Structures are given as structure tokens and as C-alpha cells.
């Protein structure tokens, strides 16, 4: 009773008016630092509060639409609806959701400890949802309708675009990649694809056309990814800050002159009136556009789920389209609201490209890791008599010649940050080049590989060699790199005095150190290799077996194989 009298006294002496005067500024402060908060207030039996975490690009439009909706005083079972809208990077929300459930999203990293898991999440791309479904299917719902669209473009400073003849041309990815690799006027940049949907979309597009380039596809794609990696930024703001601030040739020579951005980011940049505007180049085929999926998180209470559905329903139609246009975003069907103008080449960016399966996204991200992350590798090449045999599917080349092409092709793809050594083996093994940095011994390795020749009489000590190579890599294990043994062989173990398959597997299991993983990757050349036997070896330590009868596929197989090199 005492508490009730105290409450009555506070209401009668004007405390409510004073409290209101204090609360309004606090809400305003929250709008600046914590997002936007609004609610319907009159005649309600309670409050249904929705926390909405949204990608910063679309956050202003969501806030405006929510404010207009809440003026109509929506209810759920006579409870008022309150909405808290917070702009937050999609990667941070994804990490927070994964962390809450104890799930690992490959290469994403840990949550920042500040971002809260919302009731409604609007990331910039459905690719985030696909990555999460790949980790655990029930982390996010299946029904996630898109609210807006922003195509992915290649942003090029106007002077550079003019010099390249890119102002109006429709460019294929092959043309773009050739320019990135071979044109000194281009200094590319990208935001780390592991934490940025624009970067992922770019890699997916590059990977999808890689096989169309013929034999040069691997070297062209790898060269372009290396160049993008050299200009990598951790955040989009850091990348955008590196565009040229004036058209002086010296400035252009040191600034970023090509980078994948969302169409929204490019228009927002140009709206600021920079001295050097950016030109949007729309490559063909178009990368997957940002689509801002409305994601009502699983396991919401019935009232919260109902409130979320009501909110989603108001984020459609012409009025919302115009709100999107005010912030340089297209509607979810690619159409444009009032006040948003696009260049003559922009129509090609308006199509809707389906979001790929998680496997496609993971493959593209693996390509990034394969090419950009440093590794420590011992390459072991078979020179036994079995390598004299020809490979019918390789145009009459011998297995030895295929093996040399494989090793040379792999060497050309590896960046200078890697450490690589080379052994050959027949009845016994021989160190040709010790494991060391490619930056200083690439030519030595190239010469040693060129000199590999089959021993016309020697058998194959495959099992003994694999064990010796494994121990060598293990002894110099580097915690900052992936550590691996890559074996190229064209036959089966043929060494009567050597260890057996069972002994090899048992020995590997005994010396294996779980906290110092070493992958064994075996590339078999021709049909005579026994894949089942080789699989038993890699099952003991981790790794994979690949059969490569066609030398034109060697580069792809090398990069696929080394994607397994994740023991960092």
C-alpha cells in the first residue's frame, strides 16, 4: 500500500511531466547511438517490442517506414507495438547469431561481444543466410522475402574509365580480369569477402565464368584475385577512402582505380560531390545483387511474430519504393522510385540473379582462401618407371610429362607468401629443394621441376616416401600457415622392402598431433592409381585424393586440393 500511495503522490505533483521532459532527450540520444526507437502508445494492455538490426544502407528507409506505420497505432492482441531499429553491419549480426548457438561460420571470425541478436534481421544479402544455413539449417528461417535491390558494379574513377574506354561499353568478366591482371592503369581493391557480401558476390561471379576462359582460366582468375588481395580493406569505408581525391596522374597512380561496390554505395559516394566521381561498370554476367532479406528470427513468441509480419507488410509498395530511392536503393524487383536516376548502362544491372546454393558460395570463398592465405607445402613427385606410361586422355603425354605440367602449373599459381619445397621419389626419395619462401626460390624450384625424369628401371617407394615427407613437414610445423604434403603419383607402391599400406596408416596415426595438423593431398595421374588405397592414407591424417588424367585441369585440381589446407 505504501508503494501505491507513493505512486499516486508522484502523479499528482507533476512528476510525469518532468519524467517526460527527461525521457524525450534520452530517446533522441538513443536514435543517434543505438538506432531508432518508436512505439504506439494509447489505450494498450501491454507492449510488443521488436528489435530490428538492419544493414546500414537500408536502415534510413526502414526507420522512416516504421515511424509512419507506428503513427497508425498498430496492435497485436491489444498490445502496443514498439520498434527499435539499429543499423549494424551484417557480418557482426551473423557472428552474434552463430556465437549464441555455438556454431562456427567458416572464416567469419568471432562476435564482437557488443552486437545483440535481434528479433528481426535485415542483412544486405541473402548470401549471409545461405552461409548460416550451411553451418546449421535452423539458425535462420527459409522464408526471407527481399525488401530492396542494389546491383553490384565495378566502381572506376571517371578519368580511368575514360582512358580504358569503359564509359558506355558492356564488359565481359574475361575483359575485366584481363585488364586487372595486365593493365597498369588499374589498381584494384576489395573488401574482405569473408565479411562482405559485395566481395562474396564478386568472387561467385568470377568463379562462375572461370571455366569459360579455357586453359588460361586458372592463371587469369588467380592473377586477378592476387591483385584484389593486394588492395584488400577490412571495411567498405576503408576501401572508399582510397579512391582518388583529385585527377592528378600521380594521385591516380597510387589510388584505388577499380573496386566492386554496391550500386547504392557508388551513388551515395557521388552524391557527396567528390572531385573525381565514380563510374559504374556493369560486368556481364551480373554478380548477385544485394537484396536485403527480411528475416524474422526463429522461435519468436506468437505476438512478436505477428508484429514482425505486420512490419514486413508495410515495407512494400510505391511509398516504400520512394523511401528506398531517397537512399539510392531500387525496389526488390529492380524498379526505381521517384527521384532516383540511373546512367544509360545501368539497365543491365537491374536483373534478378538467383542467390546460389551454399556450396557455390563456399566454393567461391574457398577460392579466396586458396589463393590468398599463406601455406607451407612439400611437393613430392613420382619419378618411378610407372611414369613412363602414356595418358591417352592427355594427348599422348607420358605420366611424367603430366606430372611436370602439374607441378609447373601449381608453382605458377602460388603467391610469393607461400613456402614450398620439392622432393622426387622412385625406390627412395630425394630432396631437390628444401621448404623455403617462394619469394626467393621460385626459379630454383622451376628448374628442378623441369629436370624431373622417370627412372626407367626403378620401382615406387610411395608409402615410405609419404611417411618421410609427413614427418618432415611436421617437424617444421608453422602455426601461422597451412601445412601440407602434396604427392603427385602415377602408380602404386612397388617396393618389396618397404612398409605396407597398413603399416603406413598405423605409423601416421601414431605420429599425428591433433594440435599440429598436416594435410596429405594426393593427385593421381592416370587410371592405374588405386584410389581406394590412397584414400586410406589421407583418412588417417586428413586431406584428399584427386585423380587428374587431364593436364588442362591440373590448375583447378591444385587449387581445389589446397583448399583443404586449413590447419592454421
TrEMBL record:
<keyword id="KW-0472">Membrane</keyword>
<dbReference type="InterPro" id="IPR002035">
    <property type="entry name" value="VWF_A"/>
</dbReference>
<dbReference type="Pfam" id="PF13531">
    <property type="entry name" value="SBP_bac_11"/>
</dbReference>
<dbReference type="Pfam" id="PF00092">
    <property type="entry name" value="VWA"/>
</dbReference>
<feature type="domain" description="VWFA">
    <location>
        <begin position="376"/>
        <end position="562"/>
    </location>
</feature>
<keyword id="KW-1133">Transmembrane helix</keyword>
<keyword id="KW-0812">Transmembrane</keyword>
<protein>
    <submittedName>
        <fullName>Substrate-binding domain-containing protein</fullName>
    </submittedName>
</protein>
<feature type="transmembrane region" description="Helical">
    <location>
        <begin position="12"/>
        <end position="36"/>
    </location>
</feature>
<dbReference type="InterPro" id="IPR036465">
    <property type="entry name" value="vWFA_dom_sf"/>
</dbReference>
Amino acid at each position: 500500500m505504501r508503494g501505491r500511495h507513493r505512486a499516486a503522490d508522484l502523479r499528482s505533483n507533476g512528476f510525469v511531466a518532468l519524467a517526460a521532459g527527461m525521457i524525450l532527450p534520452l530517446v533522441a540520444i538513443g536514435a543517434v547511438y543505438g538506432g531508432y526507437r518508436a512505439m504506439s502508445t494509447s489505450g494498450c494492455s501491454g507492449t510488443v517490442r521488436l528489435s530490428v538490426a538492419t544493414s546500414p544502407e537500408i536502415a534510413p528507409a526502414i526507420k522512416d517506414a516504421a515511424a509512419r506505420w507506428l503513427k497508425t497505432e498498430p496492435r497485436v492482441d491489444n498490445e502496443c507495438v514498439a520498434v527499435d531499429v539499429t543499423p549494424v553491419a551484417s557480418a557482426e549480426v551473423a557472428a552474434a547469431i552463430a556465437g549464441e548457438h555455438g556454431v562456427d561460420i567458416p572464416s567469419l571470425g568471432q562476435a564482437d561481444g557488443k552486437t545483440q541478436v535481434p528479433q528481426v534481421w535485415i542483412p544486405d544479402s541473402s548470401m549471409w543466410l545461405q552461409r548460416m544455413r550451411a553451418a546449421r539449417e535452423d539458425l535462420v528461417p527459409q522464408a526471407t522475402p527481399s525488401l530492396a535491390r542494389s546491383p553490384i558494379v565495378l566502381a572506376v574513377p571517371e578519368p580511368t574509365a575514360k582512358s580504358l574506354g569503359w564509359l558506355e561499353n558492356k564488359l565481359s568478366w574475361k575483359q575485366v580480369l584481363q585488364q586487372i591482371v595486365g593493365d597498369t592503369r588499374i589498381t584494384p581493391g576489395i573488401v574482405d569477402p569473408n565479411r562482405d557480401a559485395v566481395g562474396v558476390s564478386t568472387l561467385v561471379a568470377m568463379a562462375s565464368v572461370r571455366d569459360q576462359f579455357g586453359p588460361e582460366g586458372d592463371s587469369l582468375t588467380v592473377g586477378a584475385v592476387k591483385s584484389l588481395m593486394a588492395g584488400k580493406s577490412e571495411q567498405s569505408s576503408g576501401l572508399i577512402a582510397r579512391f582518388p581525391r583529385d585527377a592528378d596522374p600521380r594521385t591516380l597512380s597510387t589510388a584505388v582505380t577499380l573496386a566492386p561496390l554496391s550500386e547504392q554505395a557508388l551513388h551515395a559516394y557521388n552524391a557527396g560531390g567528390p572531385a573525381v566521381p565514380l563510374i559504374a561498370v556493369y560486368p556481364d554476367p551480373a554478380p548477385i545483387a544485394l537484396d536485403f532479406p527480411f528475416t524474422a528470427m526463429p522461435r519468436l513468441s506468437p505476438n512478436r511474430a505477428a508484429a514482425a509480419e505486420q512490419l514486413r507488410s508495410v515495407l512494400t509498395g510505391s511509398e516504400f519504393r520512394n523511401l528506398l530511392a531517397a537512399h539510392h536503393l531500387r525496389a526488390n524487383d529492380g524498379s526505381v522510385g521517384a527521384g532516383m536516376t540511373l546512367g544509360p548502362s545501368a539497365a543491365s544491372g537491374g536483373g534478378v540473379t538467383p542467390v546460389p546454393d551454399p556450396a557455390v558460395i563456399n566454393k567461391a570463398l574457398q577460392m579466396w582462401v586458396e589463393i590468398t592465405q599463406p601455406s607451407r607445402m612439400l611437393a613430392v613427385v613420382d619419378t618411378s618407371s610407372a611414369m613412363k606410361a602414356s595418358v591417352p586422355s592427355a594427348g599422348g603425354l607420358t605420366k611424367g610429362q603430366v606430372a611436370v605440367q602439374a607441378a609447373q602449373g601449381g608453382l605458377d599459381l602460388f603467391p610469393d607468401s607461400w613456402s614450398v619445397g620439392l622432393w622426387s621419389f622412385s625406390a627412395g626419395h630425394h630432396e631437390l629443394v628444401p621448404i623455403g619462401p617462394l619469394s626467393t626460390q621460385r626459379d630454383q624450384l622451376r628448374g628442378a621441376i623441369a629436370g624431373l625424369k622417370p627412372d626407367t628401371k626403378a620401382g615406387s617407394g610411395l608409402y615410405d616416401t609419404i611417411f618421410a615427407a609427413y614427418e618432415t613437414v611436421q617437424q617444421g610445423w608453422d602455426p601461422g600457415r597451412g601445412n601440407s604434403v602434396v604427392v603427385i603419383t602415377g602408380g602404386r607402391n612397388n617396393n618389396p622392402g618397404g612398409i605396407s599400406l597398413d603399416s603406413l596408416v598405423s605409423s601416421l596415426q601414431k605420429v599425428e598431433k591433433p594440435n599440429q595438423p598436416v594435410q596429405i593431398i594426393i593427385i593421381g595421374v592416370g587410371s592405374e592409381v588405386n584410389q581406394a588405397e590412397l584414400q586410406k592414407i589421407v583418412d588417417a591424417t586428413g586431406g584428399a585424393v584427386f585423380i587428374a588424367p587431364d593436364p588442362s585441369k591440373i590448375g583447378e585440381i591444385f587449387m581445389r586440393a589446397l583448399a583443404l589446407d586449413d590447419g592454421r
